[in-house]
Amino acid sequence: MTSATIAQRLASTIAGLGRDALPAAVTRVAEDLVLDVAGLCVAARESEYVRAALAAATTTGTTTAIGHRRRLDCAESALINGMAAHGEDFDDTFEGGPVHAGAVVVPAVLAAAEQFDRDGIAVLNGIAVGVETVCRLSLVAPKRVHKAGFHPTSVLGTMGAAAAVGATLDLDARQLAHAFGIAGSMASGIIEYLADGAWTKRLHPGWAAQSGMRAALLARHGFVGPLTVFEGTHGLFNGFAHTREGNYGKLLDRFGEEWVTETLAFKPFACGTMTHPYIDCAIRLARRGIAAEEIATIHCEVAEGTVHRLWEPLALKQQPPNAYAAKFSTPFCIAAGFVLGDAGLAAFTEETARDPRLRSIAAKVSYIVDPANPYPDNYTGHLRAILRNGEVIEERQPHLRGGAHEPLSRGAIEAKFYANAAFGGWSPAQAEAALDLVRRLFSGPLDLACLRL
Q1: How many CB atoms neighbour CB 407 within 10 A?
Q2: Predicted TM-score of the model (pTM)
């Protein structure tokens, strides 16, 4: 008898979880995720990329595009909500990956639950299973997907969305295994996206959400996919990480018993996650009362795995060509923290990207690789400012604020939601209604009417 494949083993575990009570910490993270995603969708609802996606939508259906009155079919609402949730790079992250689970899983689950009339418990289970799948998949071959030139959120998120929708709709183990196989053929995520201002990275979570959903629906109706999708010669990891030798125990061991979802990080800044500790260092440097003109140079110790995305080519990162590219430039993010004292949505506009104060500081920032840096297991920050008078000042941040070492409180997540809702044009009353919905989302029938505003 042939031994079970990775997909079959994972599918059997997920199908066997049932509707038993989840740990309180997992339920809390799921609630925080829905709140965070909703706020981010509202914040981005008038952006050019969301307007373009809505204009391209061809369906009328029963599911919610958050922040819009128009209702769509489940695939298109998952696409648009996933894109909006990740569009400003202000969404959650999993430090071990890194991967953005919420922007894929929450849109897929909400759309499927609305389309097929599932209740709040089904939504909770779908979110928990989907997030856990995405995060654990990111640990199988850490850093390898990014190094191969792909976006892990898109590649691995497609699989997580299939798991999430499968759990929401109660697919059996056979259907789930085939859903993974089908989803593998839909995964994508080329990340050549920054210098020319292309919007494709913004598309990735939405594409993963709708692709994983379609995979689950196809499997639900009998379509079959390759069962060796993870470990096969032509499988997901060989194709997107250039290895078949991943640590599959990180995916399978004690799934549903120990939840890495509990360690999910919520962002305080609207930019690439690995820049955050450096921003904190820059904010503290400014609080010392040092003027910009006093700084001669700033040197940073960094992880080798972050260089190709956040530091090189250095000249381009020191002078990013547009606001979106600035989000993935550690020199610019350091400048934002130093000059503005924050790196929220307002720090990444075309006006701020051209601000000579920020560009002057960014031009002074360089890096050196620290071979002992613990990335991706931990995100740290460091800067050494050399002043024109020869004085040297150092700042270090030992971990990511908002992550496992220093989680954001519920109050901080709610404050972020209110700020994002206001940024997107919602009144306080509209935001309060949405917050009330999220607080009771998992305890009864699903009704997202207050999000269609």
Answers
A1: 19
A2: 0.95
